[in-house]
Amino acid sequence: MAECVRLDSSTSSHTMDKSITLPPDEIFRNLENAKRFAIDIGGSLTKLAYYSTVQHKVAKVRSFDHATKAASDKLYEISVQEEVTARLHFIKFENAYIETCLDFIKDHLVNTDTKVIKATGGGAHKFKELIERKLGLKVDKEDEMTCLIKGCNFVLRNIPHEAFVYAKHADSEFRFQTTQPDIFPYLLVNIGSGVSIVKVESEDKFERIGGSSIGGGTFWGLGALLTKTKRFDELLQLASKGQHTSVDMLVKDIYGGSYGSLGLTGDLIASSFGKSATADKEFSKEDMAKSLLHMISNDIGQLACLYAKLHNLSRVYFGGFFIRGHPVTMHTITYSINFFTKFILLKAMWLFHTHDHANPNQYSWGENYAGSSGLMSVSPDMNPMQRARSGTFDMLEMDRLERQLVNLPLLQDPSSYIPDTMDLTEDALAREYWLYCFEEALDGVVKRAVASQPDMPEAAQRAEKFRQKYRHKLQTLRQQPFAYGSLTVRSLLDTREHCLNEFNFPDPYSKIKQKENDMALKYYQKAVKSLEELSWEQRQFALVRGVLAGNVFDWGAKAVVLASNSGPALNDVTNGELQILTERIAAMDPVIQAGLREDRLMLVQSGSSSPCLDLSRLDKVLAMVVRERQTDLVIIEGMGRAIHTNYYAMLSCESLKMAVIKNSWLADRLGGKLFSVVFKYEVPAGKPSQHSAALSPL
């Protein structure tokens, strides 16, 4: 099957009413802290991007000075502080809204660092005077194709599973793909009024190698003449209901069946609109629109295949207003690609988002699920209430991460690595179960969030807003599993964390972790003494039981690197907490103290703020340490990191995955019982089992 890629974000633009169902301040979020603006105005859609700084609360831990009299008996103190991070906002809406949106921006624009707005697209000239008058900013035009390619590269590098396959008749319409570490080269087929075909070889090297005058404008123009329908989306809705066979001449209409010697089936189109010249009847608008859509899509698909073959490219991305996320356009182009790729290897994919941003490799970015509207199906047979969302506005938010993220160097094949064990987009039974679990657990999460801030009377109100937002996302996912990209247990957990942060609950489990760490520290020396009294074999079993109970451990390698979360997630230890805990242990244990002093025990951030672990997005410093120390054993512990993710991950060194299955449904799915132990030890072929350094993600 060929796979095909969309380059605009989700499409609510099919909604033809002029009401906005979300308040403007929920669309243009954090506008008062916007610093820089860019705008892309096409023939029918406007894409606005702006950079802002966001203030949010973070939980910080600080060690007490236990040498002083006033020292607390607690291991560390917890404080909630304000932190400023960078955020990118992308909003797409119909051009009909542009003046209203510019008025709202003007009224709320406070802190811009510049008096210039970057602009691209054909409408940048048309609306130049309006933009400058409304916003008081000078319009500075940028090259449209350069912006498009930079935006494509940006999302491919920063949004995992950005690409998806579209399969109309599958249980899930959208099947998300793993983006390879090396995204180049690829073919970009941009379908606007006409078609431009661009070969992209690197971040800055690209060339327009072809194109066609038959594109979206052709479909719109001829469609308007044939059906008297002036709206592009209405034409697509007509096409989705039509039968092209009443208008098109098929192979069987000429030969009475298939043409076997040429490999042509009877249902293949021999001549688009061929029947209209001879049939003495009126054709419906729907049938003519469908025939026209097939004619143009087949032409574009064949062109894409020929250029891909000519330049030996296996990846093709499609973008432009012609696609607009409509199933009917994606299906017809996918069908065309499938037909013309019978004898060549071609991988064509649709992209979830496309936006431009300068210096894309300077930082790592991550999507903020709490502020993104997602992708919704516009299938004509879907209940209109299921399609209702934010009027005709689509939003994407991306936060700049504190640390640059890279692949774990020990991945055996980074291009085939898939972190998640189950794809809930395709597994309907698993999807229904996990959505039910997360919804059932919501009351407990709300109570925990409120309890974590006993001195803040407004905490209950914020927690209720969190409940409403996260429940809405869960309900959306029941109807549209593909709405926010690849649906996994990890994405459900990450979305919950993002929503908690949205309403200033940075670490609801901080006080529980503090209490448990304080208590564990009191028993540390007793536990070590008990281990020393055991035989070697008994000690190994005791260590494993301790790990599975949640204890930090030393596996006995010459050197150990403990990688813990950079930010809070549930009750998982963070790097800040682990640093303090290890310092206190070192003060009472000369072995640990010597390990730290001699650099045989090292604590490093993983770069993650999730209960799960994506080995393709790890802290760059951690990757460097792994290379320098020639790590040859990786130990992954816990259900989120070793079961929900990385259960099937193949590494180039020995690995050990350990967890207790604390969920009866998951235990049954894996062939075990509740509280079964997973102890999965894997050795790559031809690798000796002698450890110089071990990496243990906590």
TrEMBL record:
Gene Ontology biological process terms, A to Z: coenzyme A biosynthetic process
Molecular function via GO: ATP binding; hydrolase activity; metal ion binding; pantothenate kinase activity
Keyword annotations from UniProtKB, A to Z: Acetylation, ATP-binding, Coenzyme A biosynthesis, Cytoplasm, Hydrolase, Manganese, Metal-binding, Nickel, Nitration, Nucleotide-binding, Phosphoprotein
Any matching Pfam family: Fumble
Reactions accelerated catalytically: (R)-4'-phosphopantetheine + H2O = (R)-pantetheine + phosphate; (R)-4'-phospho-S-sulfopantetheine + H2O = (R)-S-sulfopantetheine + phosphate; (R)-4'-phosphopantetheine sulfonate + H2O = (R)-pantetheine sulfonate + phosphate
GO cellular component, one term: nucleus
Cellular localisation: Cytoplasm
Cofactor: Ni(2+); Mn(2+)
Domain Damage-control phosphatase ARMT1-like metal-binding: 440-559
Assembly notes: Homodimer. Interacts with PKM.
Entry-linked NCBIfam families: panK_eukar
Family: In the N-terminal section; belongs to the type II pantothenate kinase family.
Function: Phosphatase which shows a preference for 4'-phosphopantetheine and its oxidatively damaged forms (sulfonate or S-sulfonate), providing strong indirect evidence that the phosphatase activity pre-empts damage in the coenzyme A (CoA) pathway. Hydrolyzing excess 4'-phosphopantetheine could constitute a directed overflow mechanism to prevent its oxidation to the S-sulfonate, sulfonate, or other forms. Hydrolyzing 4'-phosphopantetheine sulfonate or S-sulfonate would forestall their conversion to inactive forms of CoA and acyl carrier protein.
Name listed for the protein in its UniProt record: 4'-phosphopantetheine phosphatase
Gene behind the chain: pank4
